From TrEMBL:
<feature type="binding site">
    <location>
        <begin position="211"/>
        <end position="213"/>
    </location>
    <ligand>
        <name>FMN</name>
    </ligand>
</feature>
<comment type="function">
    <text>Catalyzes the synthesis of 5,6-dihydrouridine (D), a modified base found in the D-loop of most tRNAs, via the reduction of the C5-C6 double bond in target uridines. Specifically modifies U20 and U20a in tRNAs.</text>
</comment>
<feature type="site" description="Interacts with tRNA">
    <location>
        <position position="186"/>
    </location>
</feature>
<keyword id="KW-0547">Nucleotide-binding</keyword>
<feature type="site" description="Interacts with tRNA; defines subfamily-specific binding signature">
    <location>
        <position position="183"/>
    </location>
</feature>
<dbReference type="GO" id="GO:0000049">
    <property type="term" value="F:tRNA binding"/>
</dbReference>
<feature type="binding site">
    <location>
        <position position="171"/>
    </location>
    <ligand>
        <name>FMN</name>
    </ligand>
</feature>
<keyword id="KW-0288">FMN</keyword>
<feature type="binding site">
    <location>
        <position position="69"/>
    </location>
    <ligand>
        <name>FMN</name>
    </ligand>
</feature>
<dbReference type="InterPro" id="IPR035587">
    <property type="entry name" value="DUS-like_FMN-bd"/>
</dbReference>
<dbReference type="InterPro" id="IPR001269">
    <property type="entry name" value="DUS_fam"/>
</dbReference>
<dbReference type="InterPro" id="IPR013785">
    <property type="entry name" value="Aldolase_TIM"/>
</dbReference>
<dbReference type="GO" id="GO:0102264">
    <property type="term" value="F:tRNA-dihydrouridine20 synthase activity"/>
</dbReference>
<keyword id="KW-0285">Flavoprotein</keyword>
<comment type="similarity">
    <text>Belongs to the dus family.</text>
</comment>
<keyword id="KW-0521">NADP</keyword>
<dbReference type="GO" id="GO:0102266">
    <property type="term" value="F:tRNA-dihydrouridine20a synthase activity"/>
</dbReference>
Amino acid sequence: MQKYNNISINRFSVAPMLGWTDQHCNYFHRRLSTKTLLHTEMITTNAILYSKKNNLIEYNPIEQPIAIQLAGSNPRDFARCAKLVENLGYSEININIGCPSNRVQNANFGACLMTKPHLVVNCILAIKSIVDIPVTVKTRIGVDNQNSEQFLMKFISTVSEKAKCKKFTIHAREAWLNGLNPKENRNIPPLNYSKVYQLKKKFPHLIIILNGGIKTLNESLQHLKYLDGVMIGREAYKNPYMLSEVEKKIFNMNQLRKKRYQIIEEMYPYIEATLSTGGNLGQITRHMLGLFKNKPGSKYWRRYISENAYKKNAGIEVIQRALKKIQNI
């Protein structure tokens, strides 16, 4: 994996997605690609420090390389969480400066922190004072009426220079905090890739990763002509088999593409281990529903798994039955 100043560039990554990229999802995605950088869901510092759940930041070592995305605004809390994260062996700590939800705004973190670059600096410096793993930022190109190129450049300049942050993932949309919900913020603000390209030209010494609206690996390759990396979100989740071509197309590796059936069979030991400790089959298979997207039998696969995986005592026989059916279609 190529590095710049000891920070992995990560030419391709799957975005952190709240409610989606949990441990089961990341384990599944790692079956498809070994080089892709994976992310946890966004996890708040308060949840880590004060939640009764003690497994929020656990992961399976096979998921590496994996970054944890943290959200918060208290430098001391960030530092406390960062030490826990480093001890678990995460590859990177990514700070969320892009989430536009009301809950996040009320708690004073996410996209609203774009207007408080010095607080962001203090948070990053607090983390760096206690851990050695890379600290990176995921943000937007603007927030509400503060959407000029100068505003974005100043934010990046302040955070990169004062906090020595070298890697930024930029969602190429503004965050409209007034009037739009998180789902609308993923689609309504227009994409502006050229602003991200300009950012790279302005700061050639920084690692700039593009996120937002990218649907194919061919599109990714076009962006990689101008930027250091690309991040795909919902398309990688809804059509996960695209990840099986990442090694060949993005990293130019001469690696055979796994068949869908092989990927499913590789999941069996993990599924059985999870069920043996009280897990539910549907918690895992919900991430696998898109594996046969655009292939014969895909609707049957989704329907059968969805209808049966959450039943009491459901096991891998549910998957085997669905697989046998679509193999005969």
